[in-house]
Amino acid sequence: MKFSIITVCRNSERVLHNAMESLSTQHYKDYEWVVIDGASTDGTLQIVQSFSSAPLLVVSEPDHGIYDAMNKGVAKARGDYVFFLNSDDALYDENVLQDVSDWLDRNPAVDLVYGSVVNVRADGDWLRDFGHVDKYNIIEDGICHQAIFARRLLFTDVGLFDPRFKLNADYDWIIRVFRSGGCCAYMNRSLAFFSDGGAHTLDRSYLAKEREAVRRQYIGKHWLTLRLLRARFLNRLHRIIKGHAPGFVRMTARHPR
Predict the structure, then answer these.
(1) In this structure, which of 103, 193, 201, 239 has its CB flanked by the most CB atoms within 10 Å?
(2) Sorting pLDDT into bands at 50, 70 and 90, what band is 132?
(3) How far apart are CA 28 and CA 62, in angstroms?
(4) What is the rounded average pLDDT of the residues 134-148?
(5) How many domains in the chain?
(6) Is 222 exposed, middle or buried (0-12, 13-18, 19+ CB in 10 A)?
(7) From residue 112, how far is each of 78, 81, 145 by CA, in Å?
């Protein structure tokens, strides 16, 4: 099996249809859907159990936060590559899995491939293009997990998500991947719609403070500012040369929901 699509959720009956529909309409079928449910008390499990487009594995039990649940998903996954699709997110179109599979077949040495995501916000949809990332500038912004297909064995090599971090364990993990020398590559394609309504976007103050704590694990206090300035300059220069607009680019049309 090539892909394990992992969704963690709790009481998500009002938003889960977007993720499910985006999976069921995929032309590529060599995947499984792994759902880690935090003991929902609404109709989430009934909705999930109605999914029949691919093998389904459901675990429903209390957890110790989103990253504990994501680690459970990795432990249950059987695919060669894993992708985390939040319950209120969606794959970009019906060809995402096929295109990523074809790309990986052409680039078999790649451990982690990342693309862009569309951030669905109240003021419109914004394209988040991560562009060129390396072990130096990864620490500036990271890459959101909705933009990443990762070889499952990477979690054996660099470890699981660190549950000490409430909102930044995926940021910490991607830094570890880049610093470990894993083969990471950019795919010039939008992969998912990312809903601007989760804990990461609602608790921005805590997110920023915790992200600083993650950075200090890898960069000494006196070098932090200089490293970030260098990374920001090089990343911006690369995007200018390649013609990438930095950061978010507003979309001209909204995703129909």
Answers:
(1) 193
(2) confident
(3) 32
(4) 88
(5) 1
(6) exposed
(7) 17, 9, 11
